[in-house]
Amino acid sequence: MADQCKYLSKLQGSKVLVLGGSAGVGLAVAEAVIEHGGSVAIASHNPERVENALRSLESAYPSTIGTSRVSGFVAKHAPQYLLKADGQDCSITLSSSVSAQKPLPGWSPIAAMRSAVLGLGMSLAYDLRPIRVNVIAVGPVDTGLWANHVRKEKIFDKLKNGKSATGRIAVPSDVAEAYIYCMKDANCTGSVVNTNGGVLLM
Fold first, then answer.
1. Which residues form a coiled coil (predicted)?
2. Which CATH number does 86-201 carry?
3. Does domain 11-84 have CATH number 3.40.50.720?
């Protein structure tokens, strides 16, 4: 008799759209969805990056080749994928950052924008119910966005030496787990989920 599998199979057969899924955290979320048995569509404003990401996913998950489990398109076509299927759990997960919760020198405009996402998430959770809406508040993550940042090494050194409770810099696969949690927990809505290495504590 086979073991039950009621937790790992929660996303089995699900359909997930990842906006910004061609790199970084978005691509890691796409990988996690595939590994949990879901089908994923990735979207980006850059068609070339979408194609590169699709090749990467198909190389990492050969079983998706020739199936409908992986697809990609330019982000302007996304709205048609946001319709709720009758009888199925449907959720939206937005992305914000730790800058909405902890003041950083010179980051006021970014903090205002990220804080707006927190409010938007809670309001949408009410307005769109029973569709679930949650927000992931992300701390520093080592992605390509930092590649040309002139202060990258200085900022990362501070995080490793006292500014982060974990003493390490997150990678996209760390943060992807938070998105998977919000997709799987049918009781989670209107919530802000933090994944920031404990920088709010320091």
1. none
2. 3.40.50.720
3. yes
